Amino acid sequence: MVDRNDSEKRRRELLQQTRERYSDYLSPPAIHPRYRSSYNKLYSGESGESAGTFGARAFLCLMLFAAFVTMDMKKQEVFHVSSERIVKEITTDLDVAEVWKNL
Q: In this predicted model, what pLDDT tens digit does every residue of 36-48 receive, in sequence order?
């Protein structure tokens, strides 16, 4: 009877150790969106998500706006285009059907 009780106790200890070793208690659950960045690191490799282009586009827009303001203040033309022509082209109503025909 002693051997059986010891082996059962040993089996329970091993089962508990296995459960502790392979438990996902400390890892985030797979269904919660809060842990999305953790999953991206785990499942998409070391690189994670690719960076967006918003920063580059915003920087380009700011540079173009600064160039426009400079052209307007100094009354300069760049490639035979003045700031007045840029404003005129922006404010002109555009007929999409006509542009589509011209393409």
A: 777 766 666 555 4
